[in-house]
Every structure is written in C-alpha cells, then in structure tokens.
Amino acid sequence: MSNILITICARGGSVGVPDKNIKPVDGKPLIFYTIKHAFDFQNHLPGVDILLSTDSDRIKEVAKECGLTTEYQRPAELGTSDTGKVAVIKDALKFAEKTNNKSYDFVLDLDVTSPLRTITDLIKAFNQSKSNEKLITFSVNHGHKNPYFNIVEYDGEDYAISKSSDGFLSRQKAPQTYDINGSFYFYKRAFFDMGINRVTEKGVFDVFVMDHICHDVDSEEDLKFLEWVIKSGAFIA
C-alpha cells in the first residue's frame, strides 16, 4: 500500500479573477469540484490523506462547507503571485508528515482552476506513475497548436516560428506536442528532496494524456465556458 497526500492549493489573492477559487460555477464554488475529486480518490484507495493549502480564511470556510477542514495555514511568504508551486507543496508536505506522523510515497496535487478531470483519469495516471521511473507524472492534452508550424516567438530582434520546421512539410509529420493543462500532478516523494524547483526539468517528468477537454480558468470568460461544459453534461463532476 502506498501512502498518498493530496494537496489542494488555493491562494486568496488572484489578479485575473478575484476570489476565483471560490467563484460559483453551476451553483457550487469552483473549489467544490476539486474537493469532490479528492474525496473520490480517497474512497478508491487506502492510505490517502487530503490537505488544503491556503492563506485565506474565506477559502477555508468555503472548503469546510464542502466537507474539507484544515489546521494548516500557508506561510505568508508562500502566498505571493511570484511563489513557485513546488515550494508551496513542499511546505504542505512537511506539515502533513509531521502532523500525521508518517511519510508519504506520493503527492497528488489537484489544481482548483483546472477541474475537468475524472476519477478514471486519476486512477490511470497513478498506475502509470507507479510503473515508471519518472519523478513526476502530470496531465496534458494533445496540443492545439504546434511550435513547428503555428507558434511564433520574438527573439528581441525579429519574429520567427518557435521551432525549426526544416524537414517537416506538414504539421502531421512534425513531432507531437502537448498542452500542459495543470489539472493534476503525481509527485514521487523523492522529488522534494532533490532541490528541483521546476516540474518540467528534462528527464524528470512523464505525461498522462487526457482524451477529453480539460479547461483552465484564468478569466471571467473561462469561468463561463467551464460552467457551460459542466451544464452540458460533457463532463461528469
């Protein structure tokens, strides 16, 4: 049996959409969907604990209304928009291991603002993570754009296609690319002892490819679209 810590990180401040983590979506606060997935995963496997990481009393109150309570308070220095998420998760992990007097084999981080995941996604991705040597397995979708053909970047002097397309006469022949949707990340415990601050270090990560839409919320328009997807029945929360 593996000991697994689920982290749900929800900062109080948000530049794009104020209070977006608790904005109503189809009659429920946005964080509700992620808390539900955490409980669903916990019900499927033994040895799973859940920890909310927030600096906001209001988010704590809303999470409690959704069934999740926490004694953990995210330190103020980890509550800025410049703080990397790895540092936030690592601090929560330290708290959970000390409080629960146990070591965890995996950390599953569920992102509040990208909730279009399913319990099937999580179980399959966990099994994938257990079966490989990578330290991280995170969720992606097939890329809608391809940097070999239709992503342009500016190098300080001029514009150019992001990747050289020499030798590729069609997008279909170019290397497959993926969009990181941020919905969930499985970390092996060893990752947090290696001093790595980026999840995309080459050789460190594997990807779980979702076969359905997974929409990240970063604007009011994103919230409206997310609500439409949920109401349409295309996604079962």
Structure, described:
With 237 residues, the protein is of the alpha/beta class. The chain has one domain: Spore Coat Polysaccharide Biosynthesis Protein SpsA, Chain A (Alpha-Beta Complex). Helices cover 28% and strands 22% of the residues. It has five helices and ten strands; from the N terminus they run βββαβααβαβββββα. It has helices spanning 30-44, 57-65, 85-100, 119-131, 220-232; strands at residues 4-9, 24-25, 28-29, 48-53, 106-111, 136-142, 152-154, 159-161, 178-188, 205-209. The strands form three sheets. Strands 4-1-5-9-6-10 form a six-stranded mixed β-sheet, sandwiched between helices. It has a two-stranded antiparallel ribbon with strand order 2-3. It has a two-stranded antiparallel ribbon with strand order 7-8. The relative contact order is 0.18. The mean pLDDT is 91.
The rounded Rg comes to 19 Å
CATH topology: Spore Coat Polysaccharide Biosynthesis Protein SpsA, Chain A
Biggest sheet descriptor? 6 strands, mixed
Structural class: alpha/beta
List the uncertain runs.
none
Give the neighbour order of strands across the main sheet.
Answer: 4-1-5-9-6-10
Q: Which term fits the overall shape?
A: globular
* CATH architect. name: Alpha-Beta Complex
H/E series: EEEHEHHEHEEEEEH
Helix content: 25-40%
Number of helices: 5
Number of domains: 1
Number of separate strands: 10
CATH level-4 homologous superfamily: Spore Coat Polysaccharide Biosynthesis Protein SpsA, Chain A
**End-to-end distance:** 27 Å
Question: Can you identify the CATH class?
Answer: Alpha Beta
Instruction: Summarize model confidence as the mean pLDDT.
Output: 91
